[in-house]
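hey can u check if this looks right to u? its 216 residues, i copy pasted from the old doc so theres a chance i mangled smth
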Amino acid sequence: MPAAPSRIPARPDLRADARRNQERLLVAARAVFAERGIDAPMATVARRAGVGVATLYRRFPNRDALVRAAFAQQMKTCTRVFAEALADPDPWRGFRRLVEAVCELQREERGFPAAFLAAFPDDAAAHVELRGSADRGLAELVCRAQAAGALRPDFRPSDLAVVFLAHGGLVTAAPADGAASRRLVAYLLQSFRAGAANEPLPAPSALSLRGFPPTA
């Protein structure tokens, strides 16, 4: 998934107390977003961090900026894995690694699924460009794996949204059960492999990685 451009440059000149406040805000944001979703009130994040709302907005002028900063490392990892999956000469291995990597990030940071399934540019044109690039990349990944005869032919890119929703529900309900997470992912990946034993699937859902509301 292409990375959203960072709008908050590093500030090596921050005073020590300002750096501590910023780090507290990022830690608090990840915790609050995991508990209440990325639409949680900004004031709740400030309270969790033990700072005033004005301090929060001085560092992060809007919610998108805070979400991007809170999950910057996860998004960077996701972008790298996505690029590696597309470049992998073995299409099935690339597809599998992408699914496993995103699910691992879901296990490690429960607030990340919503961040992964949303785009954060402030500019509407950049928003559309990012979405389109992600959609095209996922479609290419699926097509390559199907053309290689490794991925069942009735798999659709929208099925990945179903996968990440299902896995996100599991890690939310049982955050400490890594074995259950890995087992579910293995089951799902096995079901995606092309083979004579695969029975036809029902019609695909209208979900997409743009988010969870049905698309037109």
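Residues 1-10, 119-124, 211-216 have pLDDT under 50 and may be disordered.
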